[in-house]
Amino acid sequence: MMCGGKKNVVPTYVISKADAKDLAGVSKDLDSASTTILGITVTENGSSRQDAIKRVRVATDFLRGGAYLQIKSMLNGYENQAISSAADLSEKITSTKVEMGYQQERVKSLEDLYRRFPSGARASGQVVDPKDSCAKCLSLATQIITANNDINYSKETLARLQKRL
C-alpha cells in the first residue's frame, strides 16, 4: 500500500523557499540550508482515525526502508573506499620498507669503502642529486651523508603512511 501522493509527504526545510528567495545571494550557507530537509510530515486519510494512523505507519515504514537502503549503499561505498585506501597505503608502506632496506645496504657498503679508503673521505661542498650519474664521483663522506638523508626521508615517509593507515 502506498501513500496518496506528493501532497501526503511534505518536507520541512531549515529555511522556507520564500525566505531563501529573499535571502538569495547573501550566503552559500543559507543557500544550502534552503535545500536541507529538517523533517518530513506524512498525512493520510482513512475511514477511521485508526485506519489513517495505519496508513501513515505503512507510508513511513516505506520511507524508512528507502532511507535505510540509501544509507546502507552509501556506507558500503565508504567501506569499500576505506578498504581500497588501506590496501594502497599498505602497498606503499611495503615498497618504502623495501627501498629503505636497499638504502641501508648502500650506506653499509659506502661505510666499508670509507674504512678501506680513508683518504677518499673528504666531504664536498657540492650539492648533487644522489641518483645522478656523477654522484658516484663525489667523496665517500658526501655519498654517505646523502644516503643517510635518503634513509631519513624514507623513515619520515613511512611514519606518515602508517599514521594515514
Protein model, in words:
With 165 residues, the chain is mainly alpha-helical. The protein folds into two domains: 6-79, no CATH class; 86-164, no CATH class. 64% of the residues lie in helices and 7% in strands. The chain contains four helices and two strands, in the order βααβαα. α3 packs antiparallel against α4 (140-164). The radius of gyration is 33 Å and the shape is elongated.
Give structural attributes.
elongated; two-stranded antiparallel sheet; 165 residues; 64% helix
How far is the first residue's CA from the last residue's CA? 48 Å
Please report the total strand number as a whole number: 2
Q: What is the H/E string? A: EHHEHH
Please tell me how large the radius of gyration is: 33 Å
User: Into how many domains do the coordinates divide?
Assistant: 2
Number of helices: 4
Uncertain residue ranges:
none
Largest sheet: 2 strands, antiparallel
What is the residue-mean pLDDT, rounded to a whole number? 82
Strand order of the largest sheet: 1-2
Fraction of helical residues: 55-70%
Decide which structural class fits the backbone. mainly alpha
Shape: elongated
Q: Strand share of the residues?
A: 5-15%
Concise structural overview:
This protein has 165 residues and is mainly alpha-helical. Helix content is 64%, strand content 7%.
Write the layout of secondary structure elements.
Blueprint: E1 9-13, H1 17-22, H2 28-33, E2 37-42, H3 49-116, H4 140-164
Antiparallel strand pairs: 1-2
